[in-house]
């Protein structure tokens, strides 16, 4: 269980980037964090990772205060998958994945057999063992993303933080990455990912948190939170959530459609569109608190 309790953050007392953020994420589920640029998504993510210290509130994982831990101990609880890697030195894929184990064996020490087994398992889980000896910089964007996720898995942390994991990928690799994220959750990982695509939340997430101006605008189950009315208010442009004829897990697949110049028509119809509808699209039933 990831618990974010009344978290605040600001570089000075007069300007808070995060004003009061609270939510819970049960284990084995994916939560998508959505919001406009500059609304605090990256800051919240950095607070969870321990890169920034909240000026108020607390963040816990399985009851342990993440911000009270040393970086080495925190790395055994939470792993980070960035949008892209800034690695410039000529590392092999196996060496990059082994970097996820440094919190276990420490700098200056040789990896043990346990570390080597963890790396091999992570490569196998991502089905990229064939890349082990290849140079990381020679891989495609999609292949690099698989390596970064493998590094996080080798870290042996149960909470995965993914920063816009599909932002630099073509459509096919976006779909493969999202399918992988869904599989990781089914394997018991707790996954929090930021995204600029509400559709992706429908595809892989159980829960969603919408951030606006450093506050939780809405949170809860995806089908309850990602509505035409909420998205229109969040992004300040008319957006229509519609049900397609495609069936997924027994329910209709939903998609988000921006209406651009249809604002007047949209405002008249949004209340009707947002009436509750029964859907079996998501079968998870664990609660999430705003």
Short descriptors:
globular; alpha/beta; 290 residues; 26% strand; six-stranded mixed β-sheet; single chain
Outline the structure in words:
The chain has eleven helices and twelve strands. The protein is α/β, with parallel strands linked by helices and 290 residues long. Residues 269-287 have low confidence and may be disordered. Helix 5 (113-125) packs across helix 6. Strand 11 (239-248) and strand 12 form a beta hairpin. It has a six-stranded mixed beta sheet with strand order 6-7-8-3-9-10, with helices on both faces. Helices cover 33% and strands 26% of the residues.
Radius of gyration: 20 Å
**C-alpha end-to-end distance:** 15 Å
The residue ranges in which pLDDT falls below 50 over 5 or more consecutive positions are: 269-287
> What is the number of beta strands?
12
Tertiary shape: globular
How much of the sequence is in beta strands? 25-35%
Write a concise synopsis of the structure shown:
33% of the residues lie in helices and 26% in strands. The chain has 290 residues and is α/β, with parallel strands linked by helices.
